[in-house]
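Request: Could I get any protein with tokenized structure?
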Amino acid sequence: MIEIKDITKTYVTGDVETPVLRGISFTIKDGEFVAIMGPSGSGKSTLMHILGALDTATSGVYFFDGKNISDLSQNELAEIRRNKIGFVFQAFNLLPRATVYRNVMLPLIYAETPLHLRDELVKKALDAANMPEDRWHHRSNQISGGQMQRVAIARALVNNPSLILADEPTGNLDTKTGEIVMGALQELNEKQGHTIVLITHEKNVAEHADRIIHIRDGLILEDGENGNKKIIRRHSQQ
């Protein structure tokens, strides 16, 4: 699904050049659950932006679903983001006064999905994210942090994307609730086959993935299978 070759990213401010990624190469297969782990300043967020077609590399090549997207226009990148990639952010990014149901429907509205299909797709996504049905018509500012993140997961799923990018998805959650959210992501990968790339600086979060890529100072230090994977089979409706 993903193949990046010798990706670099350098930010230029006036006469000052700041290299962030220094030649990153890896592949991610369809159906993998991969964690990209590194400390603050390692380049992992910049890499996530490139993988999510939110930014472009300075040099190198990025193939997504077999297509070279390195040189696509902004409109073409926006179409890929809308139709192929689901995002889950640390800050949830929900509309606080909109209902859970409405928040999940928004990507369908932007994608101009036919009206008669929207209800079924929203319900399917909320069920897949393990969101209690009795909360679907609450406003998003009336539910718990863990439920907010599951709404964000449902919103990422609703267009049936090829890739889910989760950027520090437990960063605003307590440990117990974070485990519940990671369990939901594991189920999406294991039971429904979604490809998930997780960005994190926390070892205990990365250990939910099947494979961990460690980066530091814009370089890959290690890339291998996770022999200490945490398994969560059941989680509460918190």
Summary: The chain has seven helices and ten strands. The first helix runs from residue 44 to 51. Residues 84 and 162 are 5 Å apart (CA to CA).
